[in-house]
Please model this.
Amino acid sequence: MELIKVGVIGSGAMGSGIAQVAAMAGHEVHVYDANPVAAQSAANNLKISIQKLVEKGKCTPEKSEEVLKNIFFQSSIDKLNYCELIIEAIVESIDVKKEVFSALESIVSDTCILASNTSSLSIASIASACNKPERFIGIHFFNPANIMPLVEIIPALQTDNTITNKSIELIKSWGKTVVVCKDTPGFIVNRVARSFYGEAIRLAEEGIADYATIDWAMKEIGGFKMGPFELMDFIGHDVNYKVTETVWEQLFFDPRFKPSLTQKRLYEAKRFGRKSSVGFYDYREGALNAEASKDVELGNYIFKRIISMLINEAIDTLYLNIASMEDIDLAMTKGVNYPKGLLRWADELGLGTVLEELESLMSTYEEDRYRPSVLLKHMVRENKHFY
Ligand code: NAD
Model:
């Protein structure tokens, strides 16, 4: 792969991780942040992060020096003029992103690929701010970008195929697992994962089980590394609630994606989770949190309900041609560490069992949130499986 110059705009949590990945792959990287304090702190953090790799034996001291020498923090966006790929990781605002890309086009060459790391905005809409929207693409890393293997590549309606193919090859050459998906709200991971959070909150709201019991069930019975409440507290409700709200709004208020008032109140109260010491759990010193009940029958009920909702979403993502079967499974295992791909899991549990669970919820609640995917119904009728 040609070692093109890579530009990164925004040096926050994501931008600094992306810069590290590109530099580790041998590229000269130019980083620009509108806030010099943020740029300085990113430069310091990068040094620490690369030093840690050396300590763990994952990078030689020589290579670490080379990598750090190859990352340039620029005080003006004009200095990104020789870059052949620019990845933007600034504030999640469509207007600000459009402004930055429209300014960038007068700085870079005609062949420079322009990419956004947005989690929730439409790639087609950002691309529309460019004179050459065919060179624009979504390249979505996961947090922390230097550790999480998954990258979602999202061509917009306007994106030229050669740009998509070049982006896929390049990001693969950085050692990442690449999946391709349609420009739809939440892409793969942030769409499919919504019910892991939403259905868990719903169970708690109904008083079926407390947070600790639901977390215990998903870890102990489901094999997930973290329970939904622990994970939401870890991600932060400012981020997690906003993603849920945006995906729901952009899907024209589909009830399957409806946010919960419980999480909205936490967000409004600034009880963001670990970062503010209180969320679903209380992390302050001496605080007492309820213990899980560890009732296996209840745990099985919780797991079956949440996993059926997750599988239904994965199946609908395939049904709507948002991504391939293999990419949907890869996305959930490599982007959010699920113990198994959801479509493979569906085969293991039996598609009939999943459909039965959803139909039973649908008949109990009479809510559209439990409507089974048409593809699931077809597959059960025809006695098919995914693998
Ligand atoms: P962040 O707040 O940590 O960093 C954003 C940086 O952009 C800040 O340093 C800020 O000074 C800078 N900035 C803001 N406006 C700018 C401008 N006009 N020009 C140059 N720099 C500017 O944000 P983040 O968490 O790194 O997220 C960045 C992007 O990545 C967002 O689009 C977000 O949706 C996406 N994303 C975030 C995550 C995550 O978990 N944090 C995961 C995947 C994708």
Notes: DSSP finds 17 helices and eight strands in the chain.
